[in-house]
Amino acid sequence: MSDVTTDKLVLAVPSKGRLMEETAQLFARGGLKLARTGNDRGYRGELQGLPGVEVAFVSASEIADLLRKGEVHLGVTGEDLLRDLIPEAETDVEFLKALGFGHADVVVAVPDFWIDVSTMSDLEEAALLYRRRHGTRMRVATKYRTLTRMFFSGHRYGGEARSVDTVSMYRIVESLGATEGAPGAGLAELIVDITSTGSTLKANSLRVLDDGIILKSEANLVMSRRAAWTDETLALKDAVLGSLG
Fold first, then answer.
1. What mean pLDDT comes out for the span 123-140?
2. What is the model's pTM?
3. Which letter does DSSP use for residue 163 in this model?
4. CA-CA distance, 198 to 203, in Å (whole number)?
5. Phi and psi dihedrals of 12, rounded to 5?
6. CATH 3.40.190.10: which residues of the chain?
7. Quick check: helix, strand or coil at residue 191?
8. What 3 state SS string does 100-150 have?
9. Residue-wise DSSP of 35-84
10. 161: confidence class by pLDDT, cuts 50, 70, 90
11. What average pLDDT does this structure show over 56-68?
12. The domain 9-102+219-243: what is its CATH number?
């Protein structure tokens, strides 16, 4: 349970970039204004037009962690981050509303020259062949460790109910920089990463497997099930949600 015990509702929003701008525009359309308190670089703020809401400006990945821990009541962040941080996300959070921006697909992408690898089933065969030839497991560069493990074991989010083919002969190498550059740099054989237009993948001579979309993600308004909720904060939650249409 969270240390949040006041009757103020704490809303976490992205601190910078396009997600912050689109979140601010979304609330503005509902007659509310995100405003920082103290100075323009401050990490705290308010939702003008709705007294009782305290705003925390933090990174999108930190928002997911704060929601998981119950240290904020509501947050705006990507589903991809929540699904990766919380494998069974619905146990700790509730997805209240998809917001229509921040679209990105989490995908499995392989080098273009792998002409015989188009599906996850093909990838499993390639992984077995790689193990026989090199005596080690094929490397997958990613920041999405949990999503990768679950998808490669046959799990699928949303869409069709069927499972994907499993891939077992691989190992994850953590991506600390631009994931799409890992195969070209010899750091991995393939990647799991996000893409919105596919242009960056194409520029790095990578392509998405035919059944390699792990998750179609977008920004969501999310409620923490672990925060300390009161009648007052529940009413404020309804007011925030209502302002979004």
1. 96
2. 0.89
3. P
4. 9
5. -95, 130
6. 9-102+219-243, 104-217
7. strand
8. CCCCEEEEEEEECCCCCCCCHHHHHHHHHHHHHHHCCCEEEEECCHHHHHH
9. EESSSTT-SEEEEETSTTEEEEEE-HHHHHHHHHHTSSSEEEEEHHHHHH
10. very low
11. 94
12. 3.40.190.10
Mean pLDDT score, 36-48: 80
> Phi and psi (nearest 5°) for 68?
-60, -40
d(CA 6, CA 12): 16
Please tell me the distance from the alpha carbon of residue 130 to that of residue 79, in angstroms, as a whole number. 33
Q: Which amino acid makes up residue 39? A: N
Tell me the Cα Rg of the chain.
20
pLDDT for 188-208, tens place per residue? 999 999 999 999 999 999 999
CB under 8 Å to 52, separation ≥6 — which residues?
Answer: 7, 8, 9, 232, 236
* Model confidence at 5: pLDDT above 50: no
For the segment 73-92, the average pLDDT, to the nearest whole number, is 92
Cα separation, 27 vs 243, whole angstroms? 7
CATH architecture of 104-217: 3-Layer(aba) Sandwich (3.40)
C-beta separation of 197 from 149 below 8 A:
no
Q: Please give the distance of CA 223 from its chain centroid, rounded to a whole number.
A: 15
